[in-house]
Amino acid sequence: MFLKSKKTGRWWMQLPDKNFVPCAYSDYLMASNNEIPERWLRSQERL
């Protein structure tokens, strides 16, 4: 799931553990094209 802050315009993506991590609009576009963003993979490795 992706969220965009109305206040700051910043993008966030939710990880399977329900935490949100900051991301870029390009990550959202990749996910909408059924590609896994690199930032998501790196965040998962840290868990």
Structure description:
- With 47 residues, this protein is an alpha+beta fold.
- It contains 2 helices and 3 strands.
- A 3-stranded antiparallel β-sheet has the order 1-2-3.
Name a few traits of the molecule.
23% strand; three-stranded antiparallel sheet; 47 residues; single chain; 36% helix; alpha+beta
How do you describe this structure in short?
With 47 residues, the protein is α+β, with helices and mostly antiparallel strands. It contains 2 helices and 3 strands. The protein is globular, with a radius of gyration of 10 Å.
Please compute the radius of gyration using only Cα atoms: 10 Å
The percent range for strand residues is 15-25%
Mean pLDDT: 93
Strand order of the biggest β-sheet: 1-2-3
What is the element string, with H for helices and E for strands?
A: EEEHH
Fraction in helix: 25-40%
Outline, from the CA principal axes? globular
Task: Profile the largest sheet.
Answer: 3 strands, antiparallel
Q: By helix and strand content, what is the structural category?
A: alpha+beta
